[in-house]
Design brief:
single chain, 142 residues, alpha/beta, Rossmann fold, 4 helices, 25% strand
Length: 142
């Protein structure tokens, strides 16, 4: 389910304040709306990827930087300072993807996680949490 824009902007505001830099990655970007907002509102270096070439074409058509990639095979989760993940897969693959992202993100990076199957590890610092909706913002320990 898509995350409402006001809630995303609130999460992103908190993420930007906690992040070590300005690189933003949207996993499963669809039409690129969150990447576009991240760039427009916070001047982030924003981009995303999606497994669906039609969604990537839509994102590019909307002005987002996007490419075709499979979230389970993507190998650069260590690059962004802020990563946005909103349930791109179905269980059990979703939980596998979340665990991989938790492991691969660089220390100090911030995760905006929505409609998740699992929380980040206990060692991660909660920046904002709304776990009643399985969502929040966390920073990976340095």
């Amino acid at each position: 389910m898509p995350l409402a824009i006001p809630r995303f902007v609130a999460f992103l505001t908190d993420a930007v304040a906690a992040a070590p830099g300005i690189e933003f990655l949207e996993v499963g970007c669809g039409p690129g709306s969150k990447s576009i907002l991240a760039a427009a509102l916070f001047d982030l270096e924003a981009g995303g990827f999606d497994i669906d070439p039609d969604m990537v074409a839509a994102a590019r058509g909307n002005g987002a930087s996007a490419c075709v990639a499979d979230a389970l095979k993507y190998r650069a989760y260590y690059e962004p300072d802020i990563l946005y993940l909103n349930k791109p897969l179905h269980l059990p693959l979703e939980a596998d993807l979340e665990r991989r992202i938790y492991e691969d993100m660089k220390p100090g990076a911030v995760l905006i996680l929505c409609n998740a199957a699992s929380r980040p590890p206990d060692s991660w610092e909660p920046v904002t949490t709304e776990w009643d909706i399985n969502s929040g913002v966390w920073r990976k320990p340095a």
